Amino acid sequence: FKTEFHPKSGCPVALESFSTFNHSHHDAGPKSIAENDSEPWHPFQMHGNFEFSELAHKAALNKDLTNQFLRLIQCLVSSEAKLTLHSDHDVMEAWAHAAKLMTPFEKHVVNVHHAKHDPKFNVHYHLLWDWAMDVLQDPHLQPHFVWDAQCLYKHNGECFEHFIDEPWTGDRWWNIQSSLPQEDAATFAFILYTDKSHLSSLGKVKAYPVIMHCGNLPTHIRNSNHGLRGGQLVGWLSIITNDRKLSYTNLKRVVWHQAFLKLLDSITCLSKVSFTYKTYDDLMRTLYLIILILSADYEEQCVMSLIRGLNSSCPCPICLVPSNELHDHSKTHPCQTSEE
Q1: Which of 158, 214, 235, 236 is a plausible cystine mate for 124, CB 3.0–4.6 Å?
Q2: Within the chain, what is the greatest distance between any pair of CA atoms?
Q3: What is the pLDDT of residues 224-244, one digit of tens each?
Q4: Residue 226, beta-bridge partner list
Q5: What tens digit of pLDDT does each residue of 284-316 get?
Q6: Distance of alpha carbon 293 from alpha carbon 319, whole angstroms
Q7: Alpha carbons 252 and 245: distance in angstroms, whole number
Q8: Nearest of 60, 88, 71, 297 to residue 196 by alpha carbon
Q9: The pLDDT of residue 82
Q10: How confident is the model at residue 145 (pLDDT cuts 50, 70, 90)?
Q11: Would you place residue 21 in the very low, low, confident or very high pLDDT band (cuts 50, 70, 90)?
Q12: Cβ atoms 189, 173 nearer than 8 A
């Protein structure tokens, strides 16, 4: 395998065997996250407190059941037990203390005019800038951030073939870093995913979550389910009752865009400037915020790009290919733009 680093990184080309390449990609950093974290249950007082609180949360225990469960455990444990919770109040206080260390949710009301009425739609969201600072300041994540673009090649017996396996190995990351003015400049990449989901097994309760990932972290960390290390819920958008009338279709698009603009509000101005960050290896990097990937299904992408889906003259949310030419992959078409 051959790895070409971006010229601004100052790193030489690396040649590795399969075993070495696979090991270095999946064991990035001087130590694994688990080895760096001596008290992974922090800020809970004891490991047992966290284990019990997590179990009570997963089991959806109500106040009475939580109290009964704790009374039973306290009767069974020995004097060396590390569990110090005695009631549902203690559990709630432990969760509240942990929540204070994280970016809180805020509420915003979207006001629109529709059919002689002024309906209001609630949007709950994290400030994305605060979320970014939470991630950057996590000491367990800092050794695993990747800042410089790379090009990966695999030798097929005759020549090297380019392949992509992480966001920073793609052409867009390389081109963005090349366009930045400072030699030490890098991108802090957001990956956003949004889709309406059913919250109950019966499919009667719907929600519209927005999930954020950090594109600078390797896949095995970025897609894990361990708090900030994996996907983080950063917003709840409003769901408008489905109606086939054109006025409701337009209303859904207006509400979605106003809500999403509010979600991005804390990083809109900051994305036009840079900020300085001290990396794990004590280097000062100039970072620029970007939304690298906005992931959604076709229905959501139609709302994002303000097209009318398969009935549009140009149904692709990315480019302006006519509907009668979708089958022809030999042609290229201009991209959709916000101005259009």
Answers
A1: 236
A2: 76
A3: 876 667 888 889 888 877 666
A4: none
A5: 999 999 999 999 999 888 888 888 888 888 999
A6: 16
A7: 11
A8: 297
A9: 62
A10: very high
A11: confident
A12: yes
Q: Are 86 and 53 in contact (CB under 8 A)?
A: no
Tokens of 241: 């009752």
What is the DSSP secondary structure assignment for residue 331, as one 8-state letter? -
Cα-based angle 8, 10, 11 (whole degrees, multiple of 5): 125
Give dist(CA 94, CA 116) in Å, integer.
47
In the chain, beta strands by DSSP E: 2-5, 14-15, 106-111, 120-125, 150-155, 160-163, 185-194, 197-198, 206-207, 209-214, 232-236, 275-278, 284-295
Long-range contacts formed by 110-116: CB under 8 A, 24+ apart: 110/238, 110/255, 110/258, 110/259, 110/262, 112/251, 112/254, 112/255, 112/258, 114/247, 114/251, 115/247
DSSP state of 205: -
Judge residue 192's burial from the number of C-beta atoms within 10 Å of its C-beta, 0-12 exposed, 13-18 middle, 19 or more buried: buried
